[in-house]
Amino acid sequence: MIVPIYLENNTAIKYNVTIDTLPKLTYNRKVAIVTNTTVSALHLETLKSKINADELFVVTVEDGEEFKNLATVESILNQLFEHKLDRKSLLIALGGGVIGDMTGFTASLYQRGIGFVQVPTTLLSQVDASVGGKTGVNNSYGKNLIGAFYQPEAVFIDTEFLKTLPKREFAAGIAEIVKMAVMFDKAYFDFLMEADFRKKAVLEKVIQRSVELKAEVVNLDEKESGIRAVLNYGHTFGHVVENETNYKTYLHGEAVAIGIMMVNALAVELKMMTQIEMNLVTKFLEKHDLPTKYEIKEVDAFYDKFFLDKKAANNKLKFILPQGIGGHMIRDDISKDVLKKVLKAF
Ligand SMILES: NC(=O)c1ccc[n+]([C@@H]2O[C@H](COP(=O)([O-])OP(=O)(O)OC[C@H]3O[C@@H](n4cnc5c(N)ncnc54)[C@H](O)[C@@H]3O)[C@@H](O)[C@H]2O)c1
Ligand SMILES: [Zn+2]
């Protein structure tokens, strides 16, 4: 199945997201695969066997979010220069969101921009990170603060890659999936509640719907001046949880699950979601072994950390709230008292 991405004016297809067995790929250009040590050991040979290119070589970087930085980008760039890539050359990202974000950003920089293709290998990157053209790296000031909006030429999603993914990583992807459903699509949420993710056809359908929803949002608002922010449901609270635990205790998706719980509690307090609806979301997260509880030691300190988020524009806190299941609202009028009350009760 193919999900076309149009972007902004809906007149011309920019690129396709193909959800299927990885096809044979022929390129009359130089191709560099960018991957990491973990993924290369598992899946590089499969990818290489599918590619027919003028010249093909591989750049392998260390595995981990801590290597998602400018130093790694520079080392990739150096290897591209060593191999004399030209303006027509292509990068292929083979890996999770870290590799995808970094490869896309490197592609945007090499000789002012060359093409790149995403072959995402984690559930999170298949349903979220590989689509939409946000690329970049972290620095000491925060996550993803350096980067570019730079769209891939194509995205190839093959669920076979997920067979080697650790269970926790798989669940982390599910948190981003339920995010899409709660924000945009009640019928999809109902489907997810019953879905058996172990079945290939079900998994492909789930990925397809997530990509479609993300595509719709990105088409309307590529640069996140409006509705794209809705994809940050659960993230405002989740980022604080990640920050408080030094990015060590929880995977990003796990922190998002906790964040979803917190913002749902806020929505219940604001009468935007019923307790019954909240319980359904909780049940889904629990079913997939995602964390739903978090001990807030210091409510004041937790609250102050909201302002570290780069999205806290002119010190106004913006919350992406669910409106029941399948609806959303962005609000910047939530009082400190209400927030602290919800945090205390959590
Ligand atoms: N660009 C976007 O729109 C966007 C959206 C969401 C997240 N992100 C970014 O994505 C990153 C998180 O992505 P992620 O969750 O994929 O993390 P990740 O890329 O770190 O991958 C998680 C782990 O799984 C390993 N792995 C990858 N594929 C595997 C496979 N098939 N089998 C076994 N192990 C495998 C990786 O080597 C890594 O150790 C973050 O840096 C985040 O900022 C970007
Ligand atoms: Zn996320």
TrEMBL record:
Q: Which enzyme type, at the first EC level?
A: lyase
Instruction: Tell me which Pfam families the record gives.
Output: DHQ_synthase (PF01761), DHQS_C (PF24621)
Pathway listed: Metabolic intermediate biosynthesis; chorismate biosynthesis; chorismate from D-erythrose 4-phosphate and phosphoenolpyruvate: step 2/7
Q: Tell me the protein's name.
A: 3-dehydroquinate synthase
The primary site where this protein sits is: cytoplasm
Identify the cofactor(s): Zn(2+); NAD(+); Co(2+)
Q: Entry's InterPro entries? A: Dehydroquinate_synthase, DHQ_synth_AroB, DHQ_synth_fam, DHQS/DOIS_N, DHQS_C
Q: Where does Zn(2+) bind?
A: E176, H235, H252
Physiological role: Catalyzes the conversion of 3-deoxy-D-arabino-heptulosonate 7-phosphate (DAHP) to dehydroquinate (DHQ).
Q: Which reaction does it catalyse?
A: 7-phospho-2-dehydro-3-deoxy-D-arabino-heptonate = 3-dehydroquinate + phosphate
Q: What is the source species? A: uncultured Sulfurovum sp
3-dehydroquinate synthase N-terminal domain segment(s): 59-171
Task: Give the Enzyme Commission number.
Answer: 4.2.3.4
Family assignment from sequence similarity: Belongs to the sugar phosphate cyclases superfamily. Dehydroquinate synthase family.
Q: What would be an example GO MF term here?
A: metal ion binding
